[in-house]
Structure formats: C-alpha cells, structure tokens
Amino acid sequence: MSQSERLVLATRYRLVSEIGQGANGTVWRGHDELLDRAVAIKELRLPDNLAEDDRVLFYRRTLREARAPAQLRTHSIVEVYDVVIEQGRPWIVMEMIEAPSLEQLIERSGPLPPERVAHIGRALLDALNTAHKAGIVHRDLKPSNVLLDGDRVVLTDFGLAFSSGSASLTKTGHFMGSPAYVAPEVAAGEKATPRSDLWSLGATLYAALEGRPPFERENVMATLSALANESTPAPQNAGALAPVITGLLEKNPTRRLSHARAVDRLERAMAGPRSGRRAPTPRYRVMVVIGLIGATVASCGIGATALIVGMMRESPGPSPTAGASTPARTTRAAAPPGAATSTLVVRARTDSCKIFVSVPGAAMTVLSDETLTMGEARRYDQPRINAVVYDASACDVWVNGLQKPPGKPGERQNYTLNKE
C-alpha cells in the first residue's frame, strides 16, 4: 500500500484506490468514514515551478470555485461534498458515480446515433444553464468529463479547472483547458464565459457523432492553429442535429447559439420534423355537368347532349359531416402479447413514437434507440431498465403489466424500472 493510500483527509476521507490521472491531478476512490459512504476524491497538483504567489492564488480559487458548485442541486451535475487542504494541496470530495464517461463510450463503441446524442446534449444544456445562472463557468467541458449512468447524464469537474483569465497563471506558459474542446476566443487569450462553454458543448456533441472533435490534430499547436485558421467542418452523421452543432460551433461568440436557442433547436430535432406526419390523401369530388351542345354534328346530322365529367381537387378542410367532430379516444388500448408479464412494453400509436431503452450498470447496454412505426411494438423482460419516450402522446406504454396513462403531445417521459 502506497503512502497516499494510507492517507485519511480531514480525519474522515480515506483514500482506497486510484481511479485515474489527468493533467491537473489524480482521482481516487475514497470512503467517508463519518457517513459510511463511497466518495470520489480529486487530488489537485500544481506544476513544481509555479511561483508561490501563483500557488496561493490557485488555492484560493480552488476553494472558491469548488464551493460554488457544491450549492448546485441538479440531476445533471456531480455533487461536491467537501474541499480540504492536505499535504499542501487541495482535495475535492465528490459524489461517487460508477459509470463510464462519454469518452470511454466513444472509444469503445464509436460514433453514437443522433437520437442518443440529442438526449445527452439536452441534459448538458440543463446542467450548463443551472451553473451559468449561478455565475459558474465550467471551462473544461469535454467527453471525459461527462458520465453516462444509465439514462442519467452527469457533468463533472465543475469550476475545478484553472481560470484562463488569470494573468498570473498565464505568465507561467501553461495552456489551460483541452485544446480540442476549447472555444476560439479562449484559445486567443480571452476570458472564459458561458458562451465559451456552449462552444465546448458543441465540440463534445460533434465528437459523440463523428468519433473525434472538429479541430483535433496531431499535437496541441496544430490543433490551436486549425482552430484559429480553418473553417468548422460540417458534421456528417448529425442528421437533424446539424443546425444545433453548427450553431454551437459558430466561431464568433456573439453569433453563437444562446442557451434558449440551442434548447429550441435541439427539442425540434428530438421531436422530428412537423411535416414528417403523413399528409392526408387529397380528396376529389366528381363534378357532372350536363351541357346542351346546340350544334349539329355534321357527320351524324343530329343534335348532341354531352356529359362533361371533371375531377376537381378539394382543399383540405372540414368534411361535410364536420359538424359532428370525432370524440377523443378515452378507452385504453388492448394490451399486446406479453404485456402482462414484461417489465416494459411500448407500442406506437403514430409514426412519431421515439424511444431509448437501456440496461443500467458499469457498462450500459442499449436495447433500443429508434422510432417505431404505427402499430409496431417492443417488449423488454430485463429486470432493470431505463427508458425514455420522447413523445408520450405517440406511444402506448405498459410497465410491469399496467398501462400508463397517455401523455400530452411533445411530452417526454422517463422510466427507471425494477421488475418486482
């Protein structure tokens, strides 16, 4: 056992084992002996040649910025429990989440489908909005700082990165942040802002869709050069998410998508095009016009009465019986086979029934990520399931044999299920 693994911080947080290392320190699996729970502990290390004034400044900033996200209570931000100074450096005590990062998932499975990336993006927008309203800028949003715990998307390391706006730290020559995910204005030396976090979100979602960030090159300098001088490449696998990605990756921060506009575009993409529904078949009526042709057909020497038959297209609108509107369906749909014994069954009411179903765990297993056609059903018998129904009015849902009440158009429903 190493000296660090024998260390107990603040007489209560025992280091158990090393989880991983990054540019600024080490993350440890720990145990809170006072509350008897597992915790994650981030040990922050400074460059050895950092001046004493810069070291003091860093400690103060770490304490201030780590305490701020500790006040944020949201499902999509990792919870910070404590900050302590031990052995001359800061240690951040956080919620322990046993789940892979988005970076690990991309490395293991390759690019993700747009529907799943949209779900991840929506959760991260909520996390950023909560933090930015509290005056906190992340500064280092990237796939390795996004954890995927079943249906839960968690942003980690909030406020723990160095501030790129610090003149004293800039003088040391250390580039702060991840070059492949840093906003152009921050790379150029400007202060990080909420808009620069939105750029990093765009680069993160781009990487999830394409398998790599938009400006990643063979080294830091080449990456920064591409970021400064090259146009943003169009994503090839984004589908309906393309307007969101390109809007977030606008190099001019004043033209970059705001939170509200990014949410609007993302939700439009998740809902699908409104014109995607089948257009009603045009109705025609037969117009029979009896006209007397007051001419004598010379070849026959007789008068003729002609029937002129034409087809006129009706404009969409109420039918002749529109006065008696069809009552809304209030009866429950007949259960499909197996619904009574399955953990989850989903059947499409319309062609807009979009679902994402997974089995939670250290390595999440995706069961479905698709849009069902009307009448199509999916059945799941796994005892533990996380599910997202993106339009509750488009799907009938049975949970442990019981049909759930229909939802409103455009309403998203999340299910965390354990079969009893």
UniProtKB/TrEMBL annotation:
<dbReference type="Pfam" id="PF00069">
    <property type="entry name" value="Pkinase"/>
</dbReference>
<keyword id="KW-0547">Nucleotide-binding</keyword>
<dbReference type="InterPro" id="IPR008271">
    <property type="entry name" value="Ser/Thr_kinase_AS"/>
</dbReference>
<keyword id="KW-0418">Kinase</keyword>
<dbReference type="InterPro" id="IPR000719">
    <property type="entry name" value="Prot_kinase_dom"/>
</dbReference>
<keyword id="KW-0808">Transferase</keyword>
<feature type="compositionally biased region" description="Low complexity">
    <location>
        <begin position="320"/>
        <end position="338"/>
    </location>
</feature>
<keyword id="KW-0067">ATP-binding</keyword>
<comment type="similarity">
    <text>Belongs to the protein kinase superfamily. NEK Ser/Thr protein kinase family. NIMA subfamily.</text>
</comment>
<keyword id="KW-1133">Transmembrane helix</keyword>
<feature type="domain" description="Protein kinase">
    <location>
        <begin position="13"/>
        <end position="270"/>
    </location>
</feature>
<dbReference type="GO" id="GO:0004674">
    <property type="term" value="F:protein serine/threonine kinase activity"/>
</dbReference>
<dbReference type="InterPro" id="IPR050660">
    <property type="entry name" value="NEK_Ser/Thr_kinase"/>
</dbReference>
<dbReference type="GO" id="GO:0005524">
    <property type="term" value="F:ATP binding"/>
</dbReference>
<feature type="transmembrane region" description="Helical">
    <location>
        <begin position="284"/>
        <end position="309"/>
    </location>
</feature>
<feature type="region of interest" description="Disordered">
    <location>
        <begin position="315"/>
        <end position="338"/>
    </location>
</feature>
<keyword id="KW-0812">Transmembrane</keyword>
<keyword id="KW-0472">Membrane</keyword>
<dbReference type="InterPro" id="IPR011009">
    <property type="entry name" value="Kinase-like_dom_sf"/>
</dbReference>
<dbReference type="InterPro" id="IPR017441">
    <property type="entry name" value="Protein_kinase_ATP_BS"/>
</dbReference>
<protein>
    <recommendedName>
        <fullName>non-specific serine/threonine protein kinase</fullName>
        <ecNumber>2.7.11.1</ecNumber>
    </recommendedName>
</protein>
<feature type="binding site">
    <location>
        <position position="42"/>
    </location>
    <ligand>
        <name>ATP</name>
    </ligand>
</feature>
